[in-house]
């Protein structure tokens, strides 16, 4: 993996990648509108828009990308994010963007299976558009005063891969953060 673009930091809602994602979400029509958060690693809420955050993205020539985000949040918010579950109704849904329809299946691990840091959750999202199948896995973990998310996106993304990158992200953050 090679770094893709420059890392970004500042208030969470001002990060370029977050603004771009929010703009894209505004162009998506879901068959189940209440499921808009099903594919999000971290929910943008009123109490998280201004918290300090940093994000970096890495890519490789085979088409996979890794995005790592660290967000300074209160312990209560971190706990809510780690214990959040995708409702059963939202584990399958259809989306339409610019006339193209895709189907999505959410795969959620049991909460205590692959714990990273002080608690974590791992979620997969399989997207089908025509004959194209792409997978995204993300892990959300909490640690000393922050929340970390790592996502792996691409045709060969796996659960074990994202959990390993989550453990590496945690180890790096523990070495660097006070």
Give a structural overview.
This protein is α+β, with helices and mostly antiparallel strands and 178 residues long. It contains three helices and ten strands. A hairpin with a 2-residue loop joins β9 and β10 (146-154). The protein is globular.
Helices and strands in order:
Elements: E1 2-3, E2 8-11, H1 16-25, E3 29-30, E4 52-59, E5 65-71, H2 75-83, E6 92-97, E7 100-108, E8 120-129, E9 132-143, E10 146-154, H3 159-176
Antiparallel strand pairs: 1-4, 2-4, 3-6, 4-5, 5-10, 6-7, 7-8, 8-9, 9-10
Q: What's the Cα radius of gyration? A: 16 Å
Count of DSSP strands: 10
Provide the structure class. Answer: alpha+beta
> How large is the count of helical segments?
3
Q: Gap between N and C termini, in Å?
A: 27 Å
State which percent range the strand residues make up: 35-45%
Please mark out the parts with pLDDT under 50 across 5 or more consecutive residues, or reply none: none
What characteristic shape results from the CA principal axes?
globular
Helix content: 10-25%
Q: Can you write the helix and strand succession as a string?
A: EEHEEEHEEEEEH
Task: Give the mean pLDDT.
Answer: 88
Largest sheet, described in full? 10 strands, antiparallel
């Amino acid at each position: 993996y090679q770094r893709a673009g420059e890392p970004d930091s500042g208030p969470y809602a001002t990060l370029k990648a977050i603004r771009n994602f929010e703009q894209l979400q505004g162009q998506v029509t879901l068959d189940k509108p209440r499921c808009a958060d099903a594919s999000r690693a971290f929910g943008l809420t009123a109490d998280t828009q201004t918290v300090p955050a940093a994000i970096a993205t890495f890519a490789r020539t085979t088409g996979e990308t890794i995005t790592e985000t660290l967000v300074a949040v209160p312990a209560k918010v971190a706990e809510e994010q780690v214990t959040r579950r995708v409702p059963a109704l939202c584990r399958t849904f259809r989306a339409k963007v610019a006339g193209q329809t895709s189907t999505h299946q959410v795969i959620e691990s049991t909460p205590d299976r692959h714990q990273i840091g002080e608690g974590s959750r791992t979620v997969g999202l399989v997207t089908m558009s025509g004959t194209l199948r792409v997978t995204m896995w993300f892990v959300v973990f909490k640690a000393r005063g922050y929340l970390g998310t790592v996502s792996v996106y691409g045709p060969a993304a796996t659960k074990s891969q994202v959990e390993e990158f989550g453990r590496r992200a945690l180890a790096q953050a523990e070495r660097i953060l006070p």
